[in-house]
Design goal:
One of its GO terms (cellular component) is cell envelope. The chain folds into three domains: 11-164, Beta-Lactamase (2-Layer Sandwich), CATH 3.30.450; 208-332, no CATH class; 336-437, Elongation Factor Tu (Ef-tu), domain 3. The protein contains twelve helices and 20 strands. It has helices spanning 2-24, 29-38, 41-44, 71-86, 102-111, 142-162, 174-188, 241-267, 272-276, 278-301, 317-320, 421-437, and strands spanning 48-53, 56-60, 93-94, 115-122, 128-136, 191-204, 208-211, 216-221, 228-229, 234-238, 303-305, 310-313, 324-325, 330-335, 340-347, 359-364, 371-379, 384-385, 391-399, 409-420. The strands form four sheets. Strands 6-15-19-17-16-20 form a six-stranded antiparallel β-barrel. A five-stranded antiparallel sheet has the order 2-1-5-4-3, sandwiched between helices. Strands 7-14-12-9 form a four-stranded antiparallel sheet, with no helix packed on it. Helix 1 runs parallel beside helix 6 (142-162), helix 4 crosses helix 5 and helix 8 (241-267) packs antiparallel against helix 10 (278-301). The longest helix has 27 residues, at 241-267. The radius of gyration is 48 Å and the shape is rod-shaped.
């Protein structure tokens, strides 16, 4: 009898060592979970086992895929939650059915075996992160419970070794986390300069606008973009065919009116009726002379000449040639290349409080590594639609040093007043939240 009992104990101990070896040799959490709910049947003879991690069933005996809404799964998770709420989840031992509610007891009788053993899985701090629900028809004797306790420590160690490590910030002590949180709040309160980005263009300062002096068709553009011109240089020539015809017609009408006046003057000495018409014919002559003068003025306006020296600022001469224009339509601008300013289009959504004299930094698209300094001079109070179709405020800034070439474009950074870093980071989200919620 002693030899037989010794042989049984040796066999059970060998099976126990085999379970520990299989746990240490598991290639991953899935394989370890399978071993935990299946391999111990030979030694402990349980009918079924369930592995719970963080309150959720991860593996079941003889089941390859766990159905989250299965009745048995729901029962085991509810029972484990009850043990956790009762404060006994960290203690290994037989589960007392009276601890469960009536519904859980009914599910136990219909879904599980008569006796259940709860084997908790503890981390290095002694906190429960999971457990094994083992159920069979006979109660677990003290020897089996001792082996299960040892096996539970092996399973917990293996699971922690195979599972993903917690982020370093979660492993920090609470005091260090509080210090880091306090420092972060202090950093968020540090005042920083607000700044916004806006598209910008170098434009002439106090340039002379050249507009169409009459309604007509442009026949020829005699200058090129950025060409230097002097006072009196011919810039644009309109199609003068109609204007010349109007001058010719006006000259002939004036000649007819003068002839009628001369004839009536000669007959006035003998004809009272002719004498009475002299005033009317004289007024008609003055009318025709005024019409001729006006036609000649229009003909003279068909050629536009430079009224000041500078460079011709416009986009493309081909775009204007042959195009009908109306009186007052802008054709170009004459500007001094040494006098330029910066024009910005600040979108409404990016607008911040800006004061005259605010610092502006321009980075040209053609030279993004070179910074051009400027100072804000004017800011529009009303937003207008830009060429891109969005509302923007117009800002004008003067350069601190020699300005870049007129017509260059880039991105300008405008600096505003100082504000806490948290406001600088959350200004746009807060504005969007207020617009969305109407607060």
């Amino acid at each position: 009898m002693t030899a037989a009992a010794t042989g049984v104990a040796e066999h059970a101990f060998a099976l126990f060592l085999g379970l520990q070896r299989q746990a240490r040799q598991a290639a991953g959490p899935e394989q370890l979970a399978y071993n935990m709910v299946n391999d111990g049947q030979t030694l402990f003879g349980f009918r079924h086992a369930a592995l719970l991690i963080a309150g959720k069933v991860r593996a079941l005996t003889g089941i390859s895929v766990v159905e989250a809404h299965a009745p048995f799964v729901a029962f085991v998770e509810r029972a484990a939650h009850t043990l956790q709420a009762a404060g006994v989840a960290a203690q290994a031992g037989a589960v007392d059915p009276t601890m469960l509610d009536s519904q859980a007891q009914a599910d136990w009788r219909s879904l599980s075996a008569a006796h259940a053993f709860w084997l908790p899985l503890l981390d290095r701090q002694g906190k429960v992160f999971g457990g094994l629900w083992l159920a069979r028809d006979q109660a677990f004797n003290p020897a089996e419970q001792a082996l299960l306790n040892q096996l539970g420590e092996t399973y917990a160690h293996a699971w922690l070794a195979l599972g993903p490590a917690k982020p370093w910030r979660l492993r920090w002590p609470r005091r260090r986390l509080l210090v880091a949180l306090g420092m972060s709040l202090l950093v968020l309160l540090v005042p920083v300069r607000q700044s916004v980005l806006a598209p910008a263009e170098v434009v002439p300062r106090a340039g002379r606008v050249v507009a169409a002096p009459l309604d007509g068709v442009i026949a020829e553009f005699l200058v090129k973009p950025n060409q230097t011109v002097a006072v009196g240089d011919l810039l644009v020539r309109f199609d003068a065919t109609t204007l010349k015809a109007q001058v010719d017609v006006a000259e002939r009408a004036l000649g007819v009116a003068e002839a009628e006046l001369k004839a009536s003057t000669q007959r006035a000495f003998s004809d009272a009726e002719s004498n009475a018409r002299l005033d009317l014919l004289a007024a008609r002559v003055e009318q025709k002379r005024a019409e001729l003068d006006y036609a000649r003025q229009l003909l003279g306006r068909s050629e536009i000449r430079a009224e000041r020296a500078g460079i011709a600022v416009f986009a493309d001469a081909e775009r204007w040639t042959g195009k009908p224009v109306q009186t007052g339509e802008r054709l170009m601008q004459l500007a001094d290349p040494q006098q330029a300013e910066l024009r910005l289009e600040l979108p409404v959504g990016d607008a911040i409080a800006l004061q005259p004299g605010a610092e502006v930094a321009l980075f040209l698209d053609s030279d993004p590594l070179h910074r051009h300094g400027a100072r804000l001079e004017r800011a529009a109070y009303e937003a207008q639609a830009t060429a891109a179709g969005q509302l923007a405020y117009r800002l004008d800034a003067g350069f601190d040093e020699a300005p870049p070439r007129i017509g260059l474009r880039g991105t300008a950074k405008v600096y505003g007043e100082r504000a806490p870093l948290v406001y600088y980071l959350l200004r746009r989200p807060l504005a969007a939240l207020r617009q969305g919620l109407g607060l």
